[in-house]
């Protein structure tokens, strides 16, 4: 059923897009008719919230860390009773964040790299470095999940002992729940909540190197790749797509016997970047050396990050990128929601029991089967 339903994603998306757009237009028109006639200058009023949700929101935007934990738990919940509260909370949080001054916005940084690179060690050292500069740091570490429980099996707080006990640091291991590339569906919402809670920096650590990096790159301002000391073999083994996503490549463990190997690796990556089209016309990706153990090179890595942020803001690309990210995530949610309804539609389930066998035996073409399932779904679906 999964393979057949996957084939339906695109036609299903097209078939329902007009219905969704019509509903959105109607909502927008009624909102404008209610009094929004002065354009962008008028401040949008907060959305209605239940008393309990309103109390959570009020505490969240004052910087209460316990409220942040409660808010993330709420948006991660799969219980139907919590979804309305989560939507109310997120709507008001997005409105609150949109009215922030640029200086108050969270700098969102994605961090990834192959296993054994020392991502957690780097995050702890880098996080402590940022705390010493007077910043508040949040870390969303996306963990592999148990396929049976959907729970987090890596203890990020135990791997960042020093950082996790700091008052101005917040670490949240986020179970992936088996989603594509190991990225939790609600990580994007958690980033938004951290911004509302007043964190200057949000570090998003991903699992390994794979499809999750593309998803994380679509929710952060800057994508940083951590690599171990080495050279040609490591570069050849690294997927080209991951290199293309990277705004900064950090060669970690540049200390002791590995220091020379780290320098050689940096040179190799620098040469490799010369043959790759930068993801932004306003920034040429950089490489640098860091020793998380000896806490050296952190200042230069941070300098590159702040230079990147300034270049993006000065060019206007910073806001444009975030706007495009919000659009992508909206349609991603629409697609996932449609597929969820498809999978849970009783009439479609009954039809598929017989139609999949015909496809497998070659009696019916996949396209014809998809049309039949789609027709059944559109006839019985309720939006």
From TrEMBL:
Keyword Cytoplasm appears in the UniProt entry: no
GO cellular component: cytoplasm
Keywords associated with the record: Kinase, Transferase
GO molecular function: GTP binding; GTPase activity; kinase activity
Highest taxon listed in the record's lineage: Eukaryota
InterPro entries per record: GTPase_ArgK (IPR005129), P-loop_NTPase (IPR027417)
Family: Belongs to the SIMIBI class G3E GTPase family. ArgK/MeaB subfamily.
Protein's name according to its UniProt entry: Putative LAO/AO transport system kinase
UniProt source species: Basidiobolus meristosporus CBS 931.73
């Amino acid at each position: 059923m999964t393979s057949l339903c996957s084939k339906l994603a695109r036609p299903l998306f097209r078939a329902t897009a007009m219905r969704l757009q019509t509903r959105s237009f109607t909502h927008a028109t009624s909102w404008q008719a209610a009094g929004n006639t002065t354009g962008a200058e008028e401040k949008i009023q907060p959305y209605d919230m239940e008393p309990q949700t309103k109390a959570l929101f009020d505490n969240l935007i004052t910087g209460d860390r316990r409220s942040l934990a409660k808010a993330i738990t709420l948006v991660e919940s799969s219980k139907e009773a919590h979804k309305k509260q989560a939507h109310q909370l997120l709507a008001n949080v997005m409105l609150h964040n949109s009215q922030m001054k640029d200086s108050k916005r969270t700098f969102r940084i994605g961090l990834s790299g192959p296993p054994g690179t020392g991502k957690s060690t780097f995050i702890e050292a880098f996080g402590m470095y940022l705390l010493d500069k007077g910043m508040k740091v949040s870390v969303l570490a996306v963990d592999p999940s148990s396929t049976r429980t959907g729970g987090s099996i890596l203890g990020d707080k135990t791997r960042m002992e020093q950082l996790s006990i700091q008052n101005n640091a917040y670490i949240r291991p986020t179970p992936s729940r088996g989603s594509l590339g190991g990225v939790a569906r609600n990580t994007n919402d958690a980033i938004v909540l951290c911004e509302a809670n007043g964190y200057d920096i949000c570090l998003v650590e991903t699992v390994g190197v794979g499809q999750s990096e593309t998803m994380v790159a679509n929710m952060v301002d800057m994508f940083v790749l951590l690599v171990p000391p080495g050279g040609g073999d490591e570069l050849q083994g690294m997927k080209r797509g991951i290199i293309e996503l990277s705004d900064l490549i950090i060669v970690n463990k540049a200390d002791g016997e590995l220091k020379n190997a780290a320098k050689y690796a940096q040179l190799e990556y620098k040469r490799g970047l010369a043959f790759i089209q930068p993801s932004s016309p306003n920034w040429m990706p950089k490489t640098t050396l860091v020793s998380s153990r000896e806490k050296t090179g952190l200042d230069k890595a941070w300098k590159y990050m702040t230079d990147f942020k300034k270049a993006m803001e000065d060019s206007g690309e910073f806001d444009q990128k975030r706007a495009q990210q919000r659009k992508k995530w909206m349609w991603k949610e629409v697609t996932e929601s449609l597929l969820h309804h498809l999978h849970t539609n009783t009439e479609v389930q009954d039809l598929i029991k017989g139609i999949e066998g015909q496809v497998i035996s070659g009696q019916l073409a996949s396209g014809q089967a998809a049309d039949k399932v789609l027709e059944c779904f559109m006839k019985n679906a309720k939006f």
